[in-house]
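does this look right to u?? iron/sulfur cluster version
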Amino acid sequence: MFRAIASRIKQGHRTTPYPAAPLQMPERFRGYPLVSPANEASEATCPYGAYSKESGGCLDMGKCLFCAECPVGTIQFTTDYQLAVTNRDHLLVHPGSEHHHARPLPPDLRRLFGRSLKFREVSAGGCNACEADTNVLSTIGWDLGRFGIQFVASPRHADGLWVTGPVTEHMAKALLTTYEAIPDPKIVVACGACAINGGPYIDTPQVCNGVDSIVPVDLYIPGCPPHPATILDGLLRILNKIKG
Ligand code: SF4
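got this back:
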């Protein structure tokens, strides 16, 4: 018993001070992309259709798997993890375009969810990577509960739907049924490239190309999988707990 207490004291406070203090991501982290104007060297194509030469060069962060197999000289990844948005179009990055962030929910929803926001998660055919990085947020290192955000077992007890995976044909009905079981008002989060538009499975007949083909989405969190910092940034921004 004394050994356990001594060990706990020695470990100290383990939860990240974020958002009170900024996060330092490792250099190899692939975050917000800087897109160069399209040129001859950008002839090769992205294997997942995330990059196009249209409008002088465009990267769709919703489709991007951050694999770094980009056409030569087109994209440079920064270590900025703040990628979540509330408007799907804001995931399109052009040379010199504005870096958009998730916007706060309307005041009436913030009043309801600001101190207690419960999600029911639906894994709609994903590989478990997005689920794993979502689960990390509930560990001592991130302690999502300190913001009043938790995952619950029943949609009847939830304020929102949290979706991972490309939404396979077989999961589409379950997703819709879960959405309908959550009382109004409710919000929907699409976590990861698959949930945003099918990820590497886009346009295959067995998937529905993401959540917003079935239910409306309030928060898009890009990445394959998104880093926990990216997820937390999006959640705190819609609750207006991070500004700027
Ligand atoms: S990182 Fe991968 S998915 Fe994203 S644009 Fe480059 S090649 Fe395409």
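The longest helix spans residues 169-181. idk if thats expected tbh
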